Give the backbone structure.
Amino acid sequence: MKKPSASKCRYPSARARSLILLFIVIGLPILCIHSVFAEDSHIVAQQKKYSIGCAPTPPDALGPFYKPKAPLRESVGKGYELSGAVMSTKDCAPIPQAYIELWMAGPKGDYKDDYRATVIPNAAGEYTFESHLPPSYFSRPPHIHMRVSAKGFKTLTTQHYPASGSKKGRLDLVLIPE
């Protein structure tokens, strides 16, 4: 009597694995860039729709390390100061009760709760955040992630990229009304 054969499991060849890896390394970033361009075209359409006085802040990737409910604080370190204002695209009016969630890599390139904060702008819509200079890691330039929400406005997810060697930066966060 003949034994039943076990099903054969074939693994992709070395060439197929290389092609898969190539797609992951090259193809996925291209898809992400296309998504950002789609977001940018949406912003242009919004500008035309509302006869906007202030151009909205361009969105950027949320990234894999976002966690809600960051502690309320204006500092997670020393050496780099980020400031700006939160405003409406409609009339450039300040949005004082916005929530600005920030998160970034620590000096060693790791994401921990120690490097997360929520900042609320003052009555003029101005905010200040202090941290260490964000490090670069893998192929990413130094950056600070930001998620801005306010009642009556679309939530904005963006990133701030400090200028090389700078100890201060400014990023105005301009939100689109809902």
Summary: DSSP finds one helix and eight strands in the chain.
